[in-house]
Amino acid sequence: MSDWVFDRDAIRAFRFVRCGFDAATGVARLVYAFDDGPELVETVTLPGAPFALDDAQAAAATRALQLLHLIAGVSYYKAAIPQEIRIDGYDIDAATAALLETVYLNGLGEFAYRNGLSLQGRIKFPVARVSEAHPGNQVAGTPDAAVGLVRATEAAAKPLGLRVHALVAIGGGKDSLVSIEALRAEGVAQTVTWIGGSQLIAACAAHTGLPTLNIGRQLAPQLFDLNRLGAWNGHIPVTAVNSAIMAFAAVVLGVDQVVFSNERSASYGSIIPGTGEVNHQWSKGWAFESAFGAHLQSHVAADLQYYSLLRPLSELAVARQFAKTDRYDAHFSSCNRNFHILGERPTSRWCGVCPKCHFVFLALAPFVPKVRLVGIVGRNLLDDPAQTAGFDALLEYQDHKPFECVGEGRESRAAMAALAQRPEWREDALVARFAREIAPQLQAEDLRIEPLLELDEEQRIPAALWDRLRLRFAD
């Protein structure tokens, strides 16, 4: 890394140096640096170039690109968490600064907890005076009227006349497949979209039979050098980054919807004694969705809709929907051990020992025939005493909920209680233990599964679509 030496504790500032998008190649460059150190360059590549953007669309693309630049910076900022944040190339308004501070503070909550850090009062994004546009921050290859900065004082974003079409995020798990099939059934035009080079996700996306979009993302390679040199490291709000990437893509492609599949259970974190709530999946929760969606419409394009199709559902309600079809049994995987930042290393689609495998098996069990479920995962996880500690964490029994994208403890307890009443499940080791040792300590009313299957009205789904989906999801 040249002559510059990374010293985590000596770094004074993290800089957002510049960002740019070349419409001719489809490549966006996001540039960062610590102090006066070397540039850290991340690239995001949209297939389908060259893109022809009119003036209004190009200006909105610039706004979306800047928002992406700012949110994606969390991957690099966390390496040293310096006191000062600088934005070299453009200005932001107070609303944008507030959004970013919320995303960084909450999205890095698990990172801070695991590293013994406090970020309270530390993350401050500068709200600067309006200055002249910087030519390094723009959408290249577009009409002259779109070149340059969108200033912090610009009026609220206007509609772009985006066509009705949804970019639907797919992660290869059950949730996104429920959304894809629900939108298909409702006749909503959609493109199944993922970021990065996962072959598992690509195969699952291909199995939908729908149009697909694979967006490339390449982190600055120096980030891994910094990690070896003692950088702070840990979990980041990756859904926030992916959301910003897809919002930028939607503007460039001229489509009006970015759809994720985050259920209401994602809004609830792990309760840590002496610390409070720490939510591993904060950027999948309602607080992020509502704030980010509103910001896109006020700052990027008034007709750009960002929402989660599954927000009204619990994890158990999503599992019930997934159980209605076996189309993806041989293709989906919710096991996070299959996905790594440096490339996937799957030996099978299910490891059978991680919190995601545990939870998906437990959530599906009340709704999927036992033979089918064991066939999907490869073995019966609930009849393995060696898995006791993992399931206890899901139940929040003598442990807190795992730092993973899993449902609430009450959902796991209700699912286990339901299985304890089923002849085909109740003799399995962990189900029998639950009935014998744990259930007697709980109130029977709190173990009912039916209340957890009810729909919630807290969501951003377009009204006409939600009116139709409400009937589908209630069944």
SSE arrangement:
Elements: E1 13-22, E2 27-34, E3 40-45, H1 55-72, H2 74-77, E4 84-87, H3 94-107, H4 109-115, E5 138-140, E6 163-169, H5 174-185, E7 190-195, H6 199-207, E8 212-218, H7 222-228, H8 238-253, E9 255-260, E10 270-272, E11 276-278, H9 286-299, E12 305-308, H10 315-322, H11 355-364, H12 370-377, H13 388-395, H14 409-419, H15 429-438, H16 463-474
Parallel strand pairs: 1-4, 1-5, 6-7, 6-9, 7-8, 9-12
Antiparallel strand pairs: 1-2, 2-3, 3-8, 10-11
Poorly predicted regions are: 130-136, 142-154, 340-346
Distance between the termini: 58 Å
**Could you say which overall geometry the principal axes of the C-alpha atoms support?**
globular
CA-based gyration radius:
23 Å
Helix share bin: 25-40%
Taking the sheet with the most strands, its summary is: 10 strands, mixed
**Percentage of residues in DSSP E strands:** 5-15%
- Please report the number of helical segments: 16
| Average pLDDT figure | 90
Please write the string of helix (H) and strand (E) elements: EEEHHEHHEEHEHEHHEEEHEHHHHHHH
Structural class given helices, strands, pairing?
A: alpha/beta
By DSSP, the count of extended strands is: 12
Describe the protein's architecture and organization.
- With 475 residues, this protein is an alpha/beta fold.
- It has helices at 55-72, 74-77, 94-107, 109-115, 174-185, 199-207, 222-228, 238-253, 286-299, 315-322, 355-364, 370-377, 388-395, 409-419, 429-438, 463-474, and strands at 13-22, 27-34, 40-45, 84-87, 138-140, 163-169, 190-195, 212-218, 255-260, 270-272, 276-278, 305-308.
- Helix 1 (55-72) runs antiparallel to helix 8 (238-253), helix 3 runs antiparallel to helix 9 and helix 5 packs across helix 10.
- The longest helix is centred in the N-terminal third of the chain and has 18 residues, at 55-72.
- The radius of gyration is 23 Å and the shape is globular.
- Residues 130-136, 142-154 and 340-346 have low confidence and may be disordered.
